[in-house]
Fold:
Amino acid sequence: QVQLVESGGGLVQAGGSLRLSCAASGRTFSSSAMGWFRQAPGKEYEFVATINWSGGSTYYADSVKGRFTISRDNAKNTLYLQMNSLKPEDTAVYYCAGRRSSNSNVKRDEYDYWGQGTQVTVSS
Structure:
């Protein structure tokens, strides 16, 4: 079983930056594809970014492409999401998710492990 714990959320002004972290327990992190999803109030879960087991392949939602960067440090069992040029529409609870598979995926249902979420609020 893998446990995921997000941190790094908070309140930031539009145009600002935040870096989210996701600490993973368990020995399977380095072989697992990982992803970030978000959910704004009253809205469905939205895919944000995904990364394969090695970090060599990444994919982003169009809404964050060029502003967000997903990365991982397998030696530290940690996933990151660097968020720059934040907009009010980025306000949401951000969730870290992991797959048993090594291949990245954009579908929420393809993920096996989830963190508890961290709130990101961007003020205008």
Notes: The chain has a mean pLDDT of 96. The first strand starts at residue 4 and ends at 7.
